[in-house]
Amino acid sequence: MKKENCIVAQSGGPTAAINASLAGVIDGVRKSGSFTRIYGSLHGITGVLENNMMDMSLMALSHFPMLNTLELTPAMYLGSCRYKLPDYTEDPAPYKQIFERFEEYGISAFFYIGGNDSMDTVLKLSNYAKSIQSDVKIIGVPKTIDNDLFATDHTPGFGSAAKYVASTVLEIAHDAYIYKIPAVIIIEIMGRDAGWLTASSALARTTYSQAPDLIYLPEVAFSKEQFLADVKDKLTKQKTVIVAVSEGIHDADGNYISSDSAVADKFGHAQLSGAGKALEYLVRDEIGVKVRSIELNVLQRCAGHIASRTDITESFSLGQAAVKYAAEGKTSIMAAIERISNDPYQWVIKSADVADIANEAKSVPVEWINEAGNDVTDEMIDYLRPLIIGEVSLQYKDGLPVYLPVDHLLH
Predict the structure, then answer these.
(1) What pLDDT, in 10s, does the model give residues 199-256?
(2) DSSP string, 238-274
(3) Which of 117, 146, 230, 375 is catalytic?
(4) What is the DSSP letter of 354?
(5) pLDDT grade, residue 274 (50/70/90)?
(6) What pTM value is reported for the model?
(7) CB atoms within 10 A of CB 356
(8) How many Å apart are CA 366 and CA 101, to the nearest integer?
(9) What is the chain's percent helix, strand, coil content, to nearest 5?
(10) 146 labelled catalytic
């Protein structure tokens, strides 16, 4: 079969903007004229291995309104996986199966939308393709609410999650302020190794509210003693103290502040639970005021109703750019964002070598964390602010948002 088709897949944790990148890939295929058909691999790369794919060519032809609805649908239309490819020099079997499938479907380009681990897959497939002299182009499209990918100013999905976090913290503050009694509210926010999302809680601050009053990121070693001192100091000045904390905070020895022992996933990443709850118990036992912990959990990554328009627009554009790069013959790259300025906010898309991205994590710069380790600086605010700007316009039916149906994932 002549190689004139392409496959797109999604992997890792979902975001409110990852389907915007998928819509961008589909639209890019429609506009490029370089591909006859586009297939969607269900549940990431495992869909290729298991021959579990859907033909999305008609969706590319429809353009509007289906792509508009897809663009604003949260989570992953094609489903996800957390499948780690082995080193092909040790176990080439899955690679042979994948590239045989590419040959069967006449595939000349594979687009993988995901985060650090997905870029590991892009790199491994690219290296294997080179080793067998395959001309299939392997292109990565970034996403992760953690905002920890290298080679891009920020990552699609992060802006929408940051908008949700900041909005939720502001709303929690309004709820907390109604009582006269001293109280501590601890909000646990996603972020295993990087504190970008927790830092975005600072965007909740207004002229009348400085919540969150304290912010703790995993980039700085966490001290329970200093935390208690910080909270006590705030309570001498105000009746309500609101704390934002990353799920991945740890002490100077690297031990996670968690109510449960951490276990690891297939990629070796710690699966954390209960940092907020652990601090709730600490405040209750050592300070004795009313205290509540709130874990935002998956709400941070699936709140499509409050997505950032900036985030959606950039995500769509990165999907389009990935197709353009493949049509130009580029491979083993990821489409990335380069920031030109903060005010006015300007950005461009560039290509980045996936070898510089896979299996790496970009931390919050230490200079963007205050000296006390319990807040962020103005430089962080200036970086974050543009990413949450703009609102999406959803269609509603019977009072609920209208999203693209995912019947194909329910079997």
Answers:
(1) 999 999 999 999 999 999 999 999 999 999 999 999 999 999 999 999 999 999 999 9
(2) -SEEEEEEETT-B-TTS-B--SS--EE-TTS-EE---
(3) 146
(4) G
(5) confident
(6) 0.94
(7) 14
(8) 46
(9) 40, 20, 40
(10) yes
